[in-house]
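Weekly modeling sync, notes
Attendees: S.R. (lead), two postdocs, one rotation student

Agenda item 3: backlog of single-chain predictions. S.R. asked that every request posted to the team notebook include the full sequence so nobody has to chase files. The rotation student volunteered to paste the first one in as an example of the format we agreed on. Action items at the bottom.

Example entry:
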Amino acid sequence: MNLYSIINNMPTYAINKRANFDYQISDKYEAGIVFAGYEVKSVKTGHISLKEAFVTLKRKAGHGLPDAYLTNCHIPLYKHAGKMPDYEPARSRKLLIKKIEIRQLIGKTKEKGLTLVPIRVYNKGSLIKLEFGVGKGKKKIDKRENIKKRETERRIQKLQKQY
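Predicted structure, as returned to the notebook:
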């Protein structure tokens, strides 16, 4: 069991471990994901990767508000689904978000240096949800400071265990 499953008491299928390391996440949002049936089975067996994934806002012609998409998320074909020659494992998947939240995201992504970063995919009831956040990229110096803090905390913990 991972940390998110224990805290939220919900099964977590994928965690983007690099999200908190590479980005400083300010606001978090929850969204549903539009899957095909065989993709749901693949996700529920734990075959999903958020490693290089990101959230984009794309406006269709004739629409007022853009739609949110999970881009570059890799979901391999479910092994019992049979042959599907036109299946793309890294295709863009539409996210189901309220209009109010989309308006907030439009304003935040227009700010310099802010991006939408997927954090984890989890189960809520019978639905599969995506948690993503508005993140600002960390610089190399910030990452080094985080590593130093973590190492000093580990040393302190070791010393406390010894005494």
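Discussion: group reviewed the output briefly. Residues 140-162 form the longest helix (23 residues).
Action items: rotation student to repeat for the remaining queue; S.R. to check formatting next week.
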